[in-house]
Amino acid sequence: MSPSRTERLLNLLIALLNTRYGLHRSDLRETVYRDVAGNDVSFGRMFERDKTDLRNFGFDVETVTDLGWSEDDPATTRYRIGKESNRLPDVELSPGEWTVILLASQLWERAALGTAAANALRKLQASSRLTDVELPLGVQPRIKPAGKAFDDLVAAMHAQHPVSFSYLAGSTGKEEQRTVEPWGLGSRFGQWYLAGYDRTRQAPRHFRLSRLTSAITVLDKERYSPPADFNIRGELDRLPELPLRTAEVDVRAGRLLGLRQRALPGDLGPSGTPDAGYDRLSVQYRDVEVLAEELASYGPDATAVTPDDLVTAVRRRLRAAADFCAAPIPVIDFPNQPRPGSVRTRTSEDQLKRMLQLVPFLVHNQGLHIQEVAERFGVTRKELEGDLQILICSGLPEGYPDDLLDIQWEDDHVYITQDLDLKRPVRFTVEEACALLTGLETLNGLPELAEGGALESVTLKLMAAAGEEGLRAGMLAGPEVGPADSATLDVVRQAIESRSQLRLVYLSPLRDRVSERNVDPLRLYSLDNTWYFEAYCHSAQGLRNFRLDRVQELHPNGNAASTRLQPNEGFPAKLFTPNDDDTTVTVQLTRRGAGLAEDYYAERTSPLPDGGLLAEIRFGNTAWLPMFVAQHGGAVRILEPRELADQSRAWVAAALARYGG
User: Fold this and answer.
1) CB neighbours of 79 closer than 8 A, spacing ≥ 6?
2) Measured between alpha carbons, how far is 430 from 467 in angstroms, rounded to an integer?
3) What is the model's pTM?
4) For residue range 561-596, what is the model confidence (pLDDT) as tens digits?
5) Which of 473, 506, 532, 539 is the most buried (most CB within 10 A)?
6) Which of 64, 62, 6, 65 lies closest to 32, judged by CA?
7) How far apart are CA 374 and CA 370, in angstroms?
8) How far apart are CA 583 and CA 581, in angstroms?
9) Helix axis angle, 348-364 relative to 112-127, nearest 10°?
10) Total Cβ atoms within 10 A of residue 527
């Protein structure tokens, strides 16, 4: 929406906040609406829309009438907003509590909750000056939500809209259409689950997000009421873990070392005889879809033999990938745009939200450099200056110069001396409260944080500050983030602290081999409960990321770290780092797979009419891309370079041939 509407809403908010007895509609029309209102009817509609917008921001627009008169009479009806309306209570935080808050706010790897957490953090910085804190070594956990379906379900859940989707039922193995009232989302056993009321079955049900076979459709014309005091964490605690099962898999001789290491020892009596050049392995698993995704990625190097539902699941993924690869190719056209997410959309709602955070932030953080302020708010300097220009022109209707917001930036340092009762941030939204409080609860899985008092105390403070919105944080539950192998993690952490070099024996699935190398560890971080460490690898002569669960041996080699390199790009860590010799690959993503563009840090995207995306992504190693296409089963295909597209198509076709077509 236009900046003029942003300015009008801001002036209306300031006017209603700074009146004791209220203002008549006629007063507001002559001042706030003087340059925009038409006739009485159009003015009335505009005023009602603006009041609704302010209420959506949480401000209670009160109606005051003269004694004995009705609200229907504009001449005797006045409007105002209480100075305490929708204000975040002051939250004083210690350095230890700030450390925990920073970690919790940066947990979300991507998705809407990452934005909500950043907004909540800025509100806290606007009510209590951010103390300089140093994040602890080896404690950089992240949560990776389950693709775009996660974002859509969170939005529908908070707005209380039902959703519909196609679902692969575990009991029947058939794809079914479901309509569900979403009550909560949580992670258990390495999987994300939706809990809600299934209108199709007319009963509460759980749905594994890995079994969704379509994008989420939000029924935004309908509403529902969730059960009072619903808590997804408690609900999932009652969910039994899937039983351990055994699959028979034929593996090409000399290939897939990682899968071979997981195979059961000895001969368990596999049925039949494998084809020449293949070995038959027995592999244990719990979730058929998780194993099917892995086996599909291996293409013709691995073939599921038993059980039948696993064979069906792998074939279904490969068939979908083959069909997508054979579909007509859309016109490849990228608008001249930067990487997704680097520039915020300039809407009236977004801009006013930002301004309501910006004024109190500047009040509590006087004299910050304008570039630092822009970086804190995730906007460009030019956008921030546009916000400031609107702010300094806003104030009380028909007021004197002292009745305007007074903001100055001298030598690029920003100061505010007149705040017009905007010096306190608005309360957390439901999304912001859920993002922070779910993050804090997730951090309980890290002993070094849970043992101190900061985590418990800051959770209590935020619950009190969030109010009713905080109570709805029970709709989300993050995964367990504690490392499976704490001994290996401790060795890496000690090496980072002492600046020591490590000798590493490491399994690389992409190269399908075990290698030995000397590394200088720089930092530890995680995605869900999978932990990584970033290190300078002397064999590769560059920065590399290593998964702790693929480390087979690790010990200090007696040498000091020989480089003073710093971790790449600061905090938070990224799994993928672009290099000059990367290959730029154009991929097409379906609506279901659109989240992969963010997962792999797409350079450019272009929306497609069916809700999918074209994306340009840089890959350092392209040899695994056929596996990438097969793994995601019809959610992604390669368009350019053509030789990579042909390789992927051939890989999927060869895998399908192993299943008879």
Assistant:
1) 16, 22, 23, 24, 25, 28, 51, 61, 62, 63, 64
2) 10
3) 0.72
4) 886 666 655 555 555 666 667 899 999 999 888 888
5) 473
6) 6
7) 6
8) 7
9) 30
10) 17
